[in-house]
């Protein structure tokens, strides 16, 4: 159901309660998501973003109940990944000549996706569109998180339509940040930042500072996923500045996979050693083969240091760890320390390869890693605990 946010602005998006996987299998969405689209009605009318293609017919049909489509003067496409531009073909069948305002990169992406010669108007930072009493002012946000990304600021209502920035994959009926479970909301906002925006943190800092310098009043931040930040909207901006600044908590996370529990036993003994050395540190263990990969990335994001462990198999490490290392490499984490560990039977290459991979991903390597032959006995487990102690003391 479409929902009025102010006299001039109506949410016309889609809440997707059932979504569990996003971007193929790349992102888990245990709390669903939403594709937020906004209808802005002044003397002129603009539609900001659409929804994901599977909901295109529902979107257009609901939009028709709110407005005669022919009265839409402009379409603003802040970002053209398919979850926001997916309903354009269905919509443009009805209003084919309506101008689509987007960045030059946005036009390329829309053309590449839909192969249509629609009426594109390219905009840059500072360009604006007069709607009557209010104006839409465009702010390019390149690489936040695609080359085409931009935000749109509405004067008068003082609303920032931020698209993916400040979003969360979080389905809610109420729409607003102050009427949902706060622990769930911030967990999802952090997971979203950790998994989607971490590689672009330097752009986040730069863009936020650039926008803050404009001293624009902000009554609401309306992202393209999840809640609208209405209660103290600046809180999510402040949070992003912290997350973008090589974020870490007093946490050490051990991520491992294990064939016959030897590497698991090592992980548990190392964790005990870390805690013994520093009871103030939060220690978490995650089996990469059993835990959600995006949750693991979020915990790595929160950590000041990580330990990655794997049994050696076929002269290498286990595939769950391989997949995770590939994700970690893409995140471009900075200011984090790491070391490796693992059990082996004969050749024992895993720990060395993990150390190398972690170094190549930008982690500061604390030591050469710790290996155990076959199943660790009490004395080896004591050595693991000692290894954990030394690791904690070196952080
Ligand atoms: Fe929500 Fe980058 O699309």
Please tag this protein with its features.
7-stranded mixed beta sheet; Rossmann fold; 2 domains; binds MU-OXO-diiron; Metallo-beta-lactamase, Chain A; 395 residues; alpha/beta; 35% helix; 6-stranded parallel beta sheet; 12 helices
Report on the structure:
The protein is of the alpha/beta class and 395 residues long. The chain folds into 2 domains: 3-244, Metallo-beta-lactamase, Chain A, CATH 3.60.15.10; 251-394, 3-Layer(aba) Sandwich (Rossmann fold), CATH 3.40.50. The chain contains 12 helices and 24 strands. The protein has a 7-stranded mixed β-sheet. Strands 17, 18, 19, 22, 23 and 24 form a 6-stranded parallel β-sheet that branches. It has a 5-stranded mixed β-sheet with strand order 12-13-14-15-16, with no helix packed on it. The model has no long low-confidence stretch (mean pLDDT 97).
Helices and strands in order, then pairings?
Layout (H helix, E strand, L loop, with lengths): L2 E2 L4 E3 L2 E3 L4 E2 L4 E2 L4 E3 L2 E4 L3 E4 L7 H11 L7 E3 L5 H4 L2 H7 L5 E3 L1 H11 L5 E3 L5 E3 L4 E6 L9 E5 L4 E5 L18 H16 L3 H13 L6 E4 L10 H11 L6 E7 L4 H16 L4 E6 L5 H10 L2 E6 L1 E2 L2 E2 L1 H13 L5 E8 L5 H11 L3 E2 L4 E4 L4 H17 L1
The chain binds MU-OXO-diiron.
Bound molecules: MU-OXO-diiron
Please, how many domains? Answer: 2
Looking at CATH, which topology of the largest domain would you report? Metallo-beta-lactamase, Chain A
Number of strands: 24
Mind telling me which CATH architecture of the largest domain this is? 4-Layer Sandwich
State the name of the first-level CATH class of the largest domain: Alpha Beta
SS-derived structural category? alpha/beta
Distance between the termini: 52 Å
CATH superfamily of the largest domain: Ribonuclease Z/Hydroxyacylglutathione hydrolase-like
Strand order of the largest sheet: 1-2-7-8-9-10-11
Provide the gyration radius in Å.
24 Å
Main sheet overview: 7 strands, mixed
């Amino acid at each position: 159901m479409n929902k009025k946010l102010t006299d001039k602005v109506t949410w016309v998006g889609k809440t997707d309660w059932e979504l569990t996987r996003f971007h193929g299998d790349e992102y888990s969405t245990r709390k669903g998501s939403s594709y937020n689209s906004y209808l802005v009605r002044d003397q002129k009318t603009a539609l900001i973003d659409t929804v994901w293609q599977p909901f295109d017919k529902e979107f257009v049909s609901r939009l028709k109940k709110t407005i005669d489509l022919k009265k839409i003067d402009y379409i603003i496409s802040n970002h053209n990944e398919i979850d926001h531009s997916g309903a354009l073909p269905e919509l443009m069948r009805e209003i084919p000549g309506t101008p689509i305002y987007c960045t030059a990169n946005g036009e390329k992406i829309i053309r590449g996706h839909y192969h249509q010669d629609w009426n594109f108007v390219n905009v840059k930072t500072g360009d604006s569109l007069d709607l009557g009493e209010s104006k839409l002012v465009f702010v390019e946000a390149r690489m936040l998180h695609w080359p085409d990304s931009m935000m749109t600021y509405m004067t008068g209502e003082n609303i920032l339509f931020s698209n993916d920035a400040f979003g969360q994959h979080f389905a809610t009926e109420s729409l607003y940040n102050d009427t949902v479970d706060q622990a769930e909301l911030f967990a999802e906002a952090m997971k979203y930042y950790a998994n989607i925006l971490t590689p672009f943190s330097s752009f986040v800092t730069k863009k936020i500072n650039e926008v803050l310098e404009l001293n624009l009043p902000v009554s609401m931040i309306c992202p393209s996923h999840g809640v609208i930040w209405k209660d103290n909207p600046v809180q999510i901006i402040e949070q992003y500045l912290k997350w973008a600044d090589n974020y870490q908590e007093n946490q050490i996370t051990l991520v491992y996979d294990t064939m016959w529990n030897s590497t698991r036993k090592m992980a548990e003994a190392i964790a005990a050693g870390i805690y013994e050395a520093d009871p103030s540190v939060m220690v978490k263990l995650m089996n990469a083969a059993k835990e959600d990969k995006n949750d693991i990335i979020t915990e790595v994001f929160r950590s000041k240091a990580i330990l990655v462990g794997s049994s050696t198999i076929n002269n290498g490490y286990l595939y769950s760890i391989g997949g995770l290392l590939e994700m970690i490499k893409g995140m471009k984490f900075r200011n984090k320390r790491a070391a490796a560990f693992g059990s082996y039977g004969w050749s024992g290459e895993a720990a060395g390869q993990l150390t190398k991979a972690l170094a190549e991903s930008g982690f500061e390597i604390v030591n050469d890693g710790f290996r155990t032959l076959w199943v660790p006995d009490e004395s080896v487990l004591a050595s693991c605990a000692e290894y954990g102690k030394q690791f904690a003391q070196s952080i």
